Amino acid sequence: MTKVNREIVVSEALDLLDEVGLDAVSTRRLAKRLGVEQPSLYWYFRTKKDLLAAMAEAAMVPHATAPLPTPGDDWRDWFADNTRSFRRTLLMRRDGARLHAGSTPVGDLDRIRRKMGFLVASGVPERDAQTAMLAAGRFTVGSVLEEQADTDPGDSADLPADMPVIDHESAFEAGLTLILNGLAYRTSPGRSESTGPVPGAL
After folding, report:
1. How far from 200 is each of 105, 131, 156, CA to CA, in Å?
2. Is it the case that residue 158 has pLDDT exceeding 70?
3. Are 35 and 1 in contact (CB under 8 A)?
4. For a Cys staple, 134 with which of 91, 178, 191, 201, CB 3.0–4.6 Å?
5. Cα–Cα distance, 21 to 12 (Å, whole number)
6. Where are the alpha helices (DSSP H) in 4-125?
7. Residue 158: is it exposed, middle or buried by C-beta count within 10 angstroms (0-12/13-18/19+)?
8. Of 140, 52, 155, 147, whose CA–CA distance to 104 is shortest?
9. Separation between Cα atoms, residue 188 and residue 183, nearest integer Å
10. Is the pLDDT reported for residue 152 higher than 80?
11. pLDDT score of 194
12. The pTM is what?
């Protein structure tokens, strides 16, 4: 039997997620996979909600460890690349967007502050930077939710002939461009407004 610790429990839980999907993930199945009794998992996670939160945090590691912006970076290019990185990371796991939705990025707060500081130092008004980051994050989660729910491309055969088939990546890029263009417009001379925290902004 493999020696179990917190990291192994989370890693195996994510592998289970990829195999069966979020709805079928259970502590019973996870315990069986690990070769332990179900109650022993409570040593590491008091509730399933705690386990899911740890899974969500671990699933975000590829994005959470991506290089932070530097003073010489173009903020528009960075904003686009940062949002794409978030999307790629969500897509790495089955039901990745559902797992992430509603989670609190406690471990990322310092990185988020540094990203915000970069945008503000680049001339983006603080309130607009917060709003744009929040909008881009929620847009990305929603886009990936739709993409991961669209598991059967054959379903498009039932659509009306004049109904366009959605290419998820192209649709994402188009929406990202609209957000970025709106932020660039708000950042143009004479367009900035009062700054301040936006409730729920990341």
Report:
1. 11, 9, 36
2. no
3. yes
4. 201
5. 13
6. 6-20, 27-34, 48-59, 61-64, 75-91, 96-100, 109-121
7. exposed
8. 52
9. 9
10. no
11. 44
12. 0.85
